[in-house]
Amino acid sequence: MPKQSKGVLQNKQQNRRDSSSSASSLSVPTQDSTDEEVFSENVPKQNVQCIFCDGHFLSDNHGEMWVMCLACHQWAHDACAGVESENYVCDFCR
Hints:
Elements: H1 6-25, H2 33-41, E1 66-68, E2 75-77, H3 78-81
């Protein structure tokens, strides 16, 4: 094995530390891209009402996510609906 100078060894160790610390600071998305696309592209175009809590889309000032039922095309807050997949069908249509 070739002998390395102390400076080269320290640089390699520093690079390892830098890469491991940056990897630990990366955020991992909680939803996959298909879910993200479904939620971001399907935004109500009018003042729809949540089928669960009767909240209105235009009154929403908290930036809540909304989801549309694929069967009845009614809208609901993501939190109210408990969405677990991109192919959401509301409780009323199941």
